[in-house]
Amino acid sequence: MIDFLKYKYLYLAISSIVIVAGLISIVTFGFRYSIDFVGGTNLQYQFSRPVDLNKVRTIFTKDGIEVIRLEENNAVISARTKAIDEKRELVLKNDLTNTLGVTLKVLLSETVGPVLGQETLIKTLIASGIAILGILIYMSFAFKSFNFALAAIVALVHDFLVVVGSYSILSHFFGAELDTMFVTAVLTAMSFSVHDTIVIFDKIREYKRTEGISNIAHSANEALTETLVRSLNNSMTIIFMLLALTLLGGSTIRFFVATLLIGTITGTYSSPFVATPVLVWLEKRRSK
Domain boundaries in the chain? Predict the structure, then answer.
């Protein structure tokens, strides 16, 4: 049997460093929000030949369209702007073709109003709250102890902070946008974390029945020794797949997969090294 809990302060230091770094990034850099949350217009035009990006930007400005992001790749212009209507877009297309002397093909044109974006954000927060509440209720009934549920929620919050903080760093340095796919990835990672935690907690409960609450630390170490290799093997198969998709997948899913990858890694870490020490601490407090 390995005494994993002997290094609980090391786990605390690692988690604190990662979470604080993420929180500093959130406060300092924030996020790049997608059109899903703040509203706006996404445009993608294919031109008959490569064009000067500065000239394109000038035309947008002349037409009174505020540009948030403008990129060019192989004669394809991708623009993110404040919300515009069909009439203003028609004027823009005419100015682009006449001024630049090119023909263009519309590949993408979508507009989301700020009201709809705000509604999406509110629904996302509500969905996250319902998920956490559901997990709390389920864990309390499944293990007949609020301490098990509370320890699982602490690990869940830990994973959430790590993933959100890491995404802020990706957003600042690599241009990742916070969108509905990110929300999906976060909720998926949270469910994976809870699944891993339940496996460990179930073993702790088995040993606790035979050894009693006074030996909860010993029970936890036995449970971790028995389940850790299986958890790592299971997680590594997922991590290798997600790593391949992150490196070789298309740009549309890269940050979604990267979020799942970060969530899988932190979920694998938090179940034995965050949730379990918290559970042991709570159970020892109850027995006093």
Answer: 4-35+116-287, 40-112
